[in-house]
Amino acid sequence: MNLLYEKYAAEIKHILAKYPADQKRSAVMPLLYLAQQEQGYIQKQDLQMIAEILDISATDVGSIVGFYTLYHDHPGGKHRLQVCNDLPCALRGADEFLEKLCENLGVQVGETTPDGLVTIEAVMCLAGCDRAPLFQVQDAEGIRYYENQTVETALQLVEHWRSDGATPAPSPLGLRAGQEKSSTPLPDETVTGLSAEVRDETASDTAATETQETD
Amino acid sequence: MSTFLLLRHREIPNLDQLDVYRQHGGFEAFQKAITTLQPKEVTDEVKASGLRGRGGAGFPTGMKWSFIDNNNWPHYVVANADESEPGTFKDREIMEGNPYQFLEGVMICAYAVQAQSAYIYLRGEFWQLAAELDKRIQALEAAGLLGDNILGTNFSLRLYTHLGAGAYICGEETALLESLEGKLGQPRLRPPFPPSYGLYGKPTIVNNVETLTNVPLIVARGAKWYKTMGTERSPGTKIFSLCGQVNKPGNYELPLGTTFRELIFTHGGGLKDGRKVKAIMPAGASSSIIVATEEALDTPMDYENTQKVGSVLGSASVIVIDDSVSMEWVINKTLHFFKHESCGKCTPCREGTYWMMHISDRISRGQANEEDLETLNDVALNIQGKCLCALGEFSTMAVVTGIERFKSDFELRLAQNANPESPETVLAAVD
Fold first, then answer.
1. Which of A19, A124, A178 sits opposite B168 (nearest CB)?
2. How does DSSP classify residue B187?
3. CB B59 within 8 A of CB B67
4. Contact B165 A69 (CB under 8 A)
5. Distance of alpha carbon B68 from alpha carbon B351, whole angstroms
6. Which of A52, B195, B266, B421 has the fewest CB atoms within 10 Å, counting from its CB?
7. Pairing of strands A142-146, A135-139
């Protein structure tokens, strides 16, 4: 009995259909994302279940977990808040941002707040260097960007989580430079993710940019 | 001529909608290719345009396509959307703002090499972007532009997205293919190159997002038109990702051959607080560090001229560093990156990045002497030329050129180490 397959049969079939029938191994990364979705980390039994589905060994699956940084083999906070402090971001104040954020939350980089809500991590380049300081959030909802941030907006987000949504969340995503020009809402409301959300948040995003520039 | 070829969404609202994209000539090039041109004619046109790979290596795109092995089937096309070089954020904007032009480029490439499956390998962080692209792909299927016997021809094609999970190395094309096969993202020994031995051992074309986004325009308007832009050996426009200590960081699409000065001052709004440009890294963290002399600032940014000032254009991710920053701090940052991202396959890179980072940390902590600086340089030089892929080489560029061209930054640091009482004046105090 394969619990993972039972739970996500439709998703797994859809994933497997992307690759040639004799190359099922290609599905290991998407399946790991599925397995990680609920608990936020990969458990031992997941390795075995994925191995069974793909006809490879659990060791092979485990090696993938160890190699790629977006898979976790230990539980973290409910939300992983991952701040880029690589060179381009650091030139725009990311180190200070990370330090002050940690200070405010009373944790060190890599640690989780005592209530288990947030793990603060330092990560490598996120391809948003012009909108630093920025971070991504990895949690049950997937991965999303928060750009042009200040310590205040980041803490506002944490408070939003802590209050279970009672306090407002800051803008989830930055806009790519210049995209402001095409800011009419998408007609297709089923389109999730960046475009629609981004466009709704243009105002607060601009505000964040201005704060950034007066630093 | 319009200002943008690639970032056209900045001029055309809602270009990310299929009907809008088609109203502006979208998929006419694809239709022209599959209904009126032989696959080889498409490749020849791209070859004649002089388009060079925008991912970093600058290899002629049409030539790469012409290398596809026609004695081994099936063929694959893989779009490299792993954009991970510190300082690069151009492919993300293309895929967010002008996704259909990119997808059309993938589709034309697939026709040129007669691939029936194409994969878009996105870095895992582009999770939401991948979901968006999946919807675009569905829209294309619904419009009859993807699927079986497209537009009544014999050509059939399907596109799939595939998410990585956080590994810089997967931007290297053979590591990317390994990763797509469900293995560790580690580079392969080359040759054989992907056009003869690629995904699942089959002939494969791997191209960067920006490269592919150029293709529809070349097919629609012709190689001759394309060559009117840029320089003779580096034709076309290029998206320069400008970041670091400039007033207006962002993506700027400019003809190849635009000078650093124009990018930084005319477009990027110059530096903050009247600071001076001290150094430029034109290819992200992998760059040799250019000393920002007047002559360097007037250098045209193309594949040839950037080499004349001792660096490479790479993916054109231009990091601007002002005169408040010490290069000792800069290379410490790049070393932490490369040590983290080394895939571990080749010993010189795996061990070398580890030791370089630790020596650099020691210099930063004030525990180093002159000899450590020599050792750092020595380790870097011993990595060069000894690794399967370019990551090993990249990890040394800033180190070797930083020490060579900004020696006084390091000497000042060492002198401070010798005299811990002296005030900290050197370490980068940004903002």
1. A124
2. P
3. no
4. yes
5. 36
6. B421
7. antiparallel
Q: Which residue of chain B is at minimal alpha-carbon distance from A178?
A: B10
**Does the pLDDT at position A214 exceed 70?**
no
Contact B86 A125 (CB under 8 A): yes
Please state, in angstroms and rounded to a whole number, the distance separating the CA atoms of residues B5 and B269: 23
CATH code linked to domain A3-67 = 1.10.10.1590
Sheet holding A135-139, edge to edge: A118-123, A79-84, A135-139, A142-146
Coil, helix or strand at residue B270:
coil
B186 Cβ neighbours under 8 A, 6+ residues apart: B169, B175, B178, B343, B344, B345
Looking at domain B8-226, which of 3.20.20.370, 3.40.50.11540, 3.10.20.310, 3.90.870.10 is its CATH number? Answer: 3.40.50.11540
Chain A residue numbers with beta carbons less than 8 Å from the beta carbon of B179 are 29
The pLDDT tens digits for B388-430 are 999 999 999 999 999 999 999 999 988 876 665 544 444 443 3
Instruction: Determine the pLDDT at residue A209.
Output: 36
CATH 3.20.20.20 correct for B327-418:
no
- Whether the CB of B283 is below 8 Å from some CB of chain A: the reply is no
Give the residue range(s) of CATH 1.10.10.1590 domains in chain A: 3-67
- Give the gap in angstroms from C-alpha B159 to the nearest C-alpha of chain A: 9
Interchain proximity A91–B180, CB inside 8 Å: no
Q: CA B211, B216, B217, B220 torsion: positive or negative?
A: positive
3-class secondary structure per residue, B15-30:
CCCHHHHHHCCCCHHH
CATH 3.40.30.10 residue ranges for chain A: 79-214
Selected for mutation to probe chain B from A37, A176, A183 (highest B CB count within 10 Å) is A176
**Angle between helix B347-365 and helix B370-383 axes, rounded to 10 deg:** 160
d(CA B60, CA B83): 20
Residue type, B338: F
Long-range contacts of A186-189 (CB under 8 A, 24+ apart): A186/B14, A186/B17, A187/B17
- CA-wise closest residue to A133 among A144, A120, A146: A146
Task: Using CB atoms, pick whichever of B181, B243, B281 lies closest to residue A26.
Answer: B181
Residues in chain A, how many?
Answer: 215
Q: Which two tokens stand for residue A15?
A: 């994933």
Cross-chain CB nearest to A88 (options B15, B16, B87): B87
Locus of tokens 């394309």: B226
User: ipTM for the complex?
Assistant: 0.92
A130, B242 Cβ separation under 8 angstroms: yes
Kindly report the pTM of this predicted structure.
0.90
CA-based nearest residue to B57, from B80, B86, B89: B80
> Which residue type does B79 have?
A
Cα angle B346-B348-B349, degrees, rounded to a multiple of 5: 70
Q: Do B166 and A123 touch (CB under 8 A)?
A: yes
Of A168-172, B91-95, B227-231, minimum mean pLDDT range? A168-172
Average pLDDT score over chain A:
83
Q: CA-based angle A86:B297:B254, to the nearest 5?
A: 75
pLDDT at A215: 31
Average pLDDT over residues A44-64: 97
Radius of gyration of chain A (CA): 19
The two structure tokens encoding residue A53: 């589905």
Q: Which of residues 70-109 of B touch A (CB under 8 A)?
A: 83-89, 91-93, 96-97
**How far is it, in rounded angstroms, from Cα A103 to Cα A118?**
14
pLDDT in tens, B173-184: 999 999 999 999
Which of these, B87, B74, B80, lies nearest to B61 by C-alpha position? B80
